[in-house]
Structures are given as C-alpha cells and as structure tokens.
Amino acid sequence: MTMDYEKKVQEQINQYANNALRFFPPDAHKYWMRNYMTPKMRDVFGVDHFIDMYLSAIPTDKDHVNILSIGSGDGQLELALAQRLIARGQPEFTIHVTELSDIRQQRTRERVAREGLQDRFEFHIVDFNRAFIPGSFDMMFAHHVLHHIVELEFLFDQIAEGLAPDGVFATIDMIGRNGHMRWPEALEYTELAWEFVPEHWKYNFQFNAFHEKYLNFDCSKSGFEGIRAQDILPLLIEKFDFSKFVAGGGFMDVIFDRGYGQSIDMANPGEKALVDFLSRTNELLLETDRIKPTMIFAHMTRKADVPAEPVIWGNMTPGFAVRPVAPSED
C-alpha cells in the first residue's frame, strides 16, 4: 500500500475519533427512510427496521450461529442484534466485531461490557483492504461499510470463501457515484431542486457554509468516503447471488442527509410537503430509468449453478439498478 493509502487510513480513523463531530441523520432523512424505503423493505424482507433485516438473515435452526460484522464502528448495531437474538431464543451465538480503529472498538467493548454480554462477542482489529477473519460464518453483514473499501474484489472473495454453504451476506450501503457525487443525469434534478428549495436548506452543516449553488462534492478526497461506491453493485453481482434486494435514493437523498438536511423543518407543513414532492419525483425517475439508485438493501448467498430469482421491489433488479459507467466518466 502507498503512503497516500496510509494517509487516508489515518484520516479515516481521525474522522470518527471524536463522537461529538458525528452528525446523526436529520428528521428529513428519517422521514424519507420511514415513508419511502421502509415500505419497500417490509414488502421484500418482511421487517420494518433495518436491524431486523440483518436479524432475518441469521438462521433459526442451528444451536450455535457464527456471525461476522464487517466494520463494526462503535458497536451499537451489533449490540442491538445480540439483544434481538437473545429475545428470539437463540441458544448460542458469537458475534465477531471488527474495526480499523482501536478507539471505536474500545467503545464497543465498553458498550458490550455494560450489558454483560462479553461472552457473546469476539473483538478483532483488522483492515479489510489487507486481511480477513478466518473461519466459517453463518451470516456476515456490512452496514454502510463497503463504500469505505478500496480492495472490494479481495474483500468479496474472502466473504464468499468464508460463508457457510447456506450462509447469507447482508448489507445496506451506498452504491452511487464515487465520493457520493451525483451522476450528471441526477445532478440535473438536484440543481433544479436547488432553484426552488427554501434558502435555509442550502446551509451545509458539515462544511459550515452556505451554498448558493449546489456543491457536487467528492467526499473521497479525504479518507475513504465513497472511494469506490460505483463499483460495489457490479462486483456484488459478479461475486454473489441475490436472494432479496431493494434499492432507492437518487437525486434527493443528498439534500435530506447530514450536511444539508439539518436545516429542514419537518414541523413546517410546507417544508414537509416539499420533502414528499422531491421523494415522489425521485421514485418516478427511478421507475422510468431516468436516474439510478444510490442505496441498496440486500441478502446474498454464494454463487449457485442455477440461482433462484431474487425477491425484489417493483422492477428494480440488481442489474437494473446498476449505472453503467462510460470510460470518460471513470
């Protein structure tokens, strides 16, 4: 790995070292997820919460299940999953939590210890661009992690090899343009929306700046944010079979997200109506193939000789969701 890579590793660790610097999803984003993504997830996965999407990928007919969390962050999701497994009556399980940052993994250790669940967890510091965790796993999951990975081919090969024969790899992640930029056809609609959204929507809390013109910023310039996002879905299709698949997002999710979305007042009927208008417009553009999605929810298995047809929402197959990239755009 190059010096540039080592610099990005340190930037990535520094980015999450201080919890106070993290922005949680604003009300507008949570509203969009609840009203435009959760119904799709419910239809395909039979659940209303993303944690239960991961829970539903864990087998119920085994005395002991081995679970690998790929990039566990501060461990909130992993702890919640453990608590759900206990409530479900799972007799024995081990969740392997993995993280690049020992700062974040220490937070996980403390969180798990407070709940007295240390015997249910194993802890690993690992850089998934370089290494993997040996073993056979009944379920592996990566929650908003893949868009930070450079060596996707290596990682996906390791996941496929480490999955038990009937194992499931589950993910929720961003699959739009690298650096979370908008593709030109989506940017056209984002910039059009910028002409009529309220002025206070244009303040970006992550940049601490007002943007009169929408800033199509490449987030991968620092750390690994969205470093190969556009390659994720094509490579998943190449390496795995999909059993369940949902996709969404497009031109508007960046308006609702952490940067700009903090400014949106969902208690204001006019602003809430505008969020609905942009969301419904985005759904229509997805259905008519004018734009491609930026987010996926997926359950996958090892490649089979004759794969079963995946359960999908609407016409959005994994292949339909891929945005072809011209050489000039790469």
From TrEMBL:
Entry keywords, A to Z: Methyltransferase, Transferase
Keyword S-adenosyl-L-methionine tagged: no
Keyword Transferase: yes
GO molecular function, one term: methyltransferase activity
Domain Methyltransferase type: from-to ranges: 68-169
Pfam families the UniProt entry points to: Methyltransf_12 (PF08242)
GO BP annotations, alphabetical order: methylation
Protein's name in the database: Class I SAM-dependent methyltransferase
Organism: Antarcticimicrobium luteum
Lineage: Bacteria, Pseudomonadati, Pseudomonadota, Alphaproteobacteria, Rhodobacterales
